[in-house]
Amino acid sequence: MKAALWVFGYGSLIWHPEFPVAERHVARLAGWHRSFCMRSIHHRGSVEAPGLVLALDRATGVHCDGVAFRVAEGAEDETLAALRERELISSAYIEEWLDVTLSDGRQVTALAYVIDPVHEQYCGGLPLEEQAEIIAHATGGRGPNRDYLYSTAEHLAALGIADADLDWLAARVRQLCS
């Protein structure tokens, strides 16, 4: 029997996984935080006007709460191929197998896409106001950057996952776009 494939979602995978899910749980990943630290030149921006997308950025003493998905049995290979096509559109993300703790206390190893901190699209440490300005105006192949922010913030809130930076950004971008 093939081992279960778990995927850790911290951004759009939470609300748009695009693969068959057998099980989902709120989960915690230690040593990484969710951050708008990747310039998006495809999905939420362009080469001429990059947007920002979330990535997992490594840091000491932090954690990221997100969703762990167990892929439906028999769909592992297609899911992995689809995720690679979606997430590895540039080489800014790196595939990592990381241990996450599920809300029921189990620990599983899940596939996660983390930022390559030496990649040219990496932009960690941007002030929140600068992030808001970029997100308010960028648009890419999957639509306006602000829609990505709003959907992620709304879905995190619905799951009971607090993210003060995303909440601040969503409120600020709404102000900038009104």
From TrEMBL:
Q: What is this protein called?
A: glutathione-specific gamma-glutamylcyclotransferase
Q: What keywords appear on the UniProt entry? A: Lyase, Transferase
Q: Does the keyword Ligase apply?
A: no
Which Gene Ontology cellular component annotation is one that this UniProt entry carries?
cytoplasm
| InterPro entries in the cross-refs | ChaC, GGCT-like, GGCT-like_sf
EC numbers listed for it are: 4.3.2.7
* Signal sequence residues: none
Q: Which GO terms describe its molecular function?
A: glutathione specific gamma-glutamylcyclotransferase activity; transferase activity
Enzyme's top EC category: lyase
Q: Which Gene3D superfamilies match?
A: Gamma-glutamyl cyclotransferase-like
Q: Which PANTHER family match?
A: CATION TRANSPORT PROTEIN CHAC-RELATED, GLUTATHIONE-SPECIFIC GAMMA-GLUTAMYLCYCLOTRANSFERASE 2
Biological process (GO) annotations held by this record are:
glutathione catabolic process
